[in-house]
């Protein structure tokens, strides 16, 4: 027999309702509550609050709300707080009851501005330390890559601004009455002045870049550096490696990256640091016959010149500051008399020339560090580890668009997303490893704090009687 439609009549009172009893034992937020110590934030921000006035929302609760913002991929703090009263699992996680008033969204934004970057860096480092202790980080082989992040601003807000230059240069420009050089002006967004225009894979983006170090063992993010979108990847390699070594306290032995990081300066840095590079670089292209490519020319270090396949000398001519290289040229008349002139020289007005990077010795060293098979293997893992890390962040945590404005706030977003990705891997590791299920650092820290508080409450001298 078919049942009748029921009409919901709200009760005046509800008895015996407990959010904890309605939370499944296997709910992810239960595991997170046991695994992560959110209370560390209180000691970090204690000096930022006064002793008078209205009592603030518990900093640990604010940090949990920030965590939910990225863990649940909510688009804004306002949207998060509008959904909070509707989600019993979120209320339980943050310590609120069904009939308790939740804070306004402005509480989160004010706390974020007041706390600054240090608190969120500490949150990322705490979870990374747990991953290291759980054996998920090797630290010796890392994959370095970057990804664009769209700014919370439109390209229509870009306005031209002039850089500060000397008065003499302005007078020279006025006298010439020519167009303003591109390097003297830049376009800045009036909505987000820190955002910049950057181009990657043929797409121009107004926003930022997240440069990551991803550990080879389990794909744990060990370092994240945020820059404007116009900063070249090659400029950030050393900073990312240094941050990885600081966070993990492990010396890097091998660094894997794409050709955007393959510069002579980076190879020199890696050589000095004793790090093996698996980084390809841009090859010099030429229209000449392969038999007369620049690889066929032998460099003579003692005389600082090149010797062509026919024995002719290419002498050092000039320094190319833009490309950080030196140009070596052969005499035009000598080249015209050579029987291989048409095959070797592409210009009809000058002799053959070779461009040598100032750090060519380190480039040659980098090319011969690894076997072809090992290089191919590491580059395949880089695509899985580094690019997979960014794809997971974009698909599950709203990584590709900034929720905030300003480079400091975007760095907070990147730290929180990376920490949550690491936490998810840690949770999977603990749930799949029976020996690791007893691992609960948050409970251990809470127990230590209780013991320290009890010890402090005891008098300095105690007398025991039989």
Structure, described:
Among the domains are: 19-115, no CATH class; 156-190, no CATH class; 290-345, no CATH class. The protein is an alpha+beta fold and 466 residues long. It contains 17 helices and 13 strands. Helix 11 links the parallel strand 7 (254-257) and strand 8. Helix 4 (59-71) packs across helix 16 (407-432), helix 8 (117-133) packs parallel to helix 16 and helix 11 (264-273) crosses helix 14 (360-367). The strands form 3 sheets. Strands 1, 4, 5, 6, 7 and 8 form a 6-stranded mixed beta sheet that branches. A 5-stranded antiparallel beta sheet has the order 9-10-11-12-13, with no helix packed on it. A two-stranded antiparallel ribbon has the order 2-3. The model is unreliable at 177-184 and 460-466 (pLDDT under 50). The chain starts with 18 loop residues before the first helix and ends in a 9-residue tail after the last helix. The chain has helices spanning 19-22, 28-35, 40-45, 59-71, 77-83, 88-94, 106-115, 117-133, 167-176, 237-248, 264-273, 332-336, 341-344, 360-367, 372-397, 407-432, 441-457, and strands at residues 141-150, 158-162, 185-189, 196-200, 203-215, 221-228, 254-257, 276-279, 298-300, 305-307, 313-320, 325-329, 353-357. It is elongated and about 105 Å long. 41% of the residues lie in helices and 17% in strands.
């Amino acid at each position: 027999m078919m049942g009748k439609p029921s009409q919901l009549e709200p009760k005046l009172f509800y008895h015996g309702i407990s959010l904890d009893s309605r939370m499944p034992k296997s709910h992810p937020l239960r595991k997170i509550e046991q695994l992560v110590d959110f209370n560390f934030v209180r000691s970090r921000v204690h000096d930022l609050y006064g002793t008078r006035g209205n009592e603030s929302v518990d900093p640990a609760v604010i940090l949990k709300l920030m965590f939910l913002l990225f863990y649940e991929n909510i688009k804004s703090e306002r949207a998060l707080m509008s959904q909070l009263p509707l989600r019993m699992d979120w209320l339980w996680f943050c310590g609120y009851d069904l009939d308790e008033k939740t804070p306004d969204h402005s509480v989160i934004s004010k706390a974020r501005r007041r706390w600054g970057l240090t608190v969120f860096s500490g949150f990322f480092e705490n979870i990374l330390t747990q991953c290291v202790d759980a054996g998920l980080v090797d630290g010796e082989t890392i994959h370095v890559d970057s990804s664009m992040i769209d700014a919370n601003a439109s390209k229509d807000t870009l306005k031209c601004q002039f850089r500060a230059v000397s008065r003499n240069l302005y007078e020279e420009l006025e006298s010439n009455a020519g167009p303003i050089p591109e390097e003297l002006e830049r376009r800045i967004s009036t909505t987000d002045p820190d955002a910049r225009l950057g181009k990657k894979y043929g797409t121009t983006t107004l926003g930022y870049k997240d440069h990551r170090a991803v550990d080879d063992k389990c794909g744990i993010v060990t370092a994240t550096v945020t820059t404007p979108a116009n900063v070249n990847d090659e400029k950030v390699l050393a900073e990312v490696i240094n941050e990885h070594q600081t966070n993990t306290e492990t010396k890097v032995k091998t660094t894997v990256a794409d050709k955007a990081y393959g510069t002579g300066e980076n190879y020199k840095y890696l050589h000095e640091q004793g790090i093996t590079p698996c980084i390809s670089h841009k090859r010099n292209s030429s229209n000449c016959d392969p038999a007369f490519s620049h690889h066929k020319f032998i460099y003579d270090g003692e005389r600082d010149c090149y010797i062509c396949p026919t024995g002719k000398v290419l002498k050092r001519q000039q320094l190319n500051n833009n490309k950080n290289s030196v140009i070596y040229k052969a005499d035009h008349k000598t080249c015209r008399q050579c029987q291989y002139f048409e095959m070797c020289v592409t210009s009809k007005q000058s002799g053959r020339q070779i461009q040598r990077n100032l750090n060519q010795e380190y480039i040659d060293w980098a090319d011969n560090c690894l076997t072809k098979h090992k290089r191919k293997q590491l580059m395949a893992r880089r695509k899985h580890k580094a690019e997979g890390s960014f794809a997971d962040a974009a698909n599950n945590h709203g990584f590709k668009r900034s929720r905030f404005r300003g480079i400091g706030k975007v760095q907070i977003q990147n730290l929180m997303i990376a920490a949550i990705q690491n936490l998810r891997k840690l949770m999977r590791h603990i749930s799949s490893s029976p020996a690791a299920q007893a691992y609960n650092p948050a409970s251990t820290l809470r127990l230590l704090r209780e013991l320290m508080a009890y010890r402090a409450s005891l008098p300095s001298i105690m007398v025991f009687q039989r």
